[in-house]
Amino acid sequence: MEAYKINPEFVISDEETLRSHYSELSPLAAKKCLSALDKHARDFIARSPFLCLGTQNKDGKADVSPRGDPVGFVKVLDPQTLAIPDRPGNNRLDSLANIVANPNVGLLFLIPGFDETLRVNGMATLVTDPDLLQTMSVKDRAPKLAIVVKVSEVFLHCAKAFRRSHLWDPEHQQDRSEMPSLSKIILDQTTGAPDEKEMQKLDAALEETYRKTLY
């Protein structure tokens, strides 16, 4: 595939030019951004089993990480503070290392079947308070730490992206078997994948790892 080259003639490099390409911001859209979690935001979070966590390191390199658990896994500690359990993963610790370097985070909460999303921005701290972690236990296993976020902005996002993508529509679900397994993709990208029989063993081992190490 040939490398794409950006024509500098069509580059937008300042906010004034950017805004000239769009309609004026509506008063309601400007006012909907809150500085604390009201009852509707708290209810949304209580229903959500999944969020995306956006972080940046000290140099501005960005990362987005999925976080999922049973409904209500994010704890609202007060109207401006929430806590996210950190469950076992691959130990790359990209998001956590970014938070240590740069505490600014962005959260996007999703609820299956809801086309709206909840956006939360704030400052994150990594906390190992055992009393807090115990409240986040699943199957008698507490997380190693919690990401505690002091909320600075919160607002509901409209349904357009989900309506366009048909994300929750069963008729638009794709067949996972049309792409290789995660194990094969990673091996293809790194050391090279073995034959099909050996891949079946590796895929089964991955499923067993999922079963044993979710918490």
TrEMBL record:
A Pfam family this chain is assigned to: PNPOx_N
SUPFAM superfamilies from the UniProt entry: FMN-binding split barrel
Domain Pyridoxamine 5'-phosphate oxidase N-terminal positions: 37-158
Residue ranges of coiled coil: none
Cross-referenced InterPro entries: Pyridox_Oxase_FMN-dep, Pyridox_Oxase_N, Split_barrel_FMN-bd
Gene3D superfamilies reported in the protein's UniProt record: Electron Transport, Fmn-binding Protein, Chain A (2.30.110.10)
Alphabetized PANTHER family for the sequence: FAD-BINDING, PUTATIVE (AFU_ORTHOLOGUE AFUA_6G07600)-RELATED
Entry protein name: Pyridoxamine 5'-phosphate oxidase, FMN-binding family
Organism (species): Roseibium aggregatum
Upper lineage: Bacteria, Pseudomonadati, Pseudomonadota, Alphaproteobacteria, Hyphomicrobiales
